[in-house]
Backbone:
């Protein structure tokens, strides 16, 4: 105890220094402005899309989707997955999983300046257009937008052009199995700083209404898979330092208290006796050498010793004459069975050799008698 106490006192200056250091950090801490990536559903920054996400939460019960596409709920139909300027998805398997999601009866709305590489889409660059730009839908309705449109979509024969201008297609729709793919080359339309300008919101809602979704998912997996570390870094540095040093202090406290970690191993001699191993080795030797007769004689001799100790049957009594003594104590057997046992065992012990079947039979019968004797 004295040694632990002196060790604890030696740590006190260190603990005091840590406490002072934490106090300085807390007093001098100033929260830093958080930098949000572009087009994130939870981002209130000008380049985020939290405004439209909150709007769709109220209207369509929108949710964030942060998982891999292979676990998208394909059993439900009529869902709309919104992908805003995704990072390059190079995995062919993931693209196929998104296509399976649409083939099951769901839709995807892809907003990207350059969607080439996604779903076999192609674009062409155009000369800068004077803002605001005027878009036209298939019903000749016009929409004024004030965002960058550096590319135009190259639609295939099966694509339906939803919005276009004099330079080409700005938004298209494509049938994919039972579902649909919507593409819009103007992701800036729905950013927090632009969504309420001109007709930007009307253009976006036109596509959403065309999909008529039962539920809306904002795909955040395409912006980089969330990790444990990114979740931890949300907390302030002083708080993380406090947690770290608290963990160290707890480990030191447990160590000083003599706590042990890991499994407890019992010494081998506590659960294995040499005599047990010796018996097993001897039994194996008798079996391998086919010394069945010798083994039966040893078992019978040992049982006789037990009979003398427990049931007071003289050790010198031959097995053939022991029946009348056994009848008084071996109550689970009938007199006839006991007589057959005595005569049979006498005959077996008189034989020069036994086969394995005879050995197993009489070894079992002797075990039955030994168990009854040991019960008392």
Residues:
């Amino acid at each position: 105890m004295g040694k632990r106490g002196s060790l604890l006192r030696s740590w006190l200056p260190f603990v005091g220094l840590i406490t002072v250091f934490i106090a300085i950090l807390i007093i001098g801490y100033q929260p830093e402005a958080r930098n949000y990536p572009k087009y994130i559903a939870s981002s209130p920054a000008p380049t985020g899309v939290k405004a439209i996400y909150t709007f769709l939460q109220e209207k369509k019960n929108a949710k964030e989707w942060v998982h891999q596409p292979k676990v998208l709920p394909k059993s439900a139909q009529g869902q709309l997955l919104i992908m805003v300027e995704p990072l390059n998805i190079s995995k062919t398997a993931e693209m196929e999983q998104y296509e399976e999601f649409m083939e099951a009866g769901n839709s995807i709305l892809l907003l990207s300046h350059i969607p080439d590489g996604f779903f076999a889409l192609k674009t062409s660059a155009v000369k800068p257009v004077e803002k605001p730009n005027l878009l036209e839908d298939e019903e000749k309705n016009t929409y004024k937008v004030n965002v960058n449109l550096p590319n135009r979509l190259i639609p295939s024969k099966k694509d339906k052009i939803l919005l276009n201008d004099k330079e080409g297609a700005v938004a298209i729709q494509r049938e994919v199995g039972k579902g649909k793919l919507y593409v819009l080359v103007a992701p800036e339309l729905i950013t927090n700083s632009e969504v309420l300008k001109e007709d930007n919101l009307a253009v976006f809602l036109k596509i959403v209404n065309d999909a008529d979704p039962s539920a809306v998912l904002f795909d955040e997996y395409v912006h980089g898979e969330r990790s444990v570390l990114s979740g931890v870094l949300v907390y302030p540095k002083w708080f993380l330092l406090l947690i770290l040093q608290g963990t160290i202090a707890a480990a030191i406290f447990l160590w000083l208290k003599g706590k042990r970690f890991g499994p407890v191993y019992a010494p081998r001699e506590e659960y294995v006796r040499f005599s047990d191993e010796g018996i097993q080795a001897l039994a194996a030797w008798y079996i391998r050498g086919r010394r069945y007769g010798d083994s039966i004689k040893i078992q019978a001799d040992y049982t006789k010793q037990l009979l003398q100790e427990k049931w007071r049957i003289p050790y010198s009594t031959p097995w053939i004459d022991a029946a009348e003594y056994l009848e008084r104590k071996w109550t689970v057997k009938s007199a006839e069975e006991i007589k057959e046992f005595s005569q049979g065992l006498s005959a077996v012990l008189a034989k020069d050799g036994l086969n394995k079947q005879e050995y197993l039979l009489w070894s079992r019968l002797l075990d039955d008698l030994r168990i009854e004797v040991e019960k008392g």
User: Anything to note?
Assistant: Residues 269-375 form one domain. Residues 2-28 form the longest helix (27 residues).
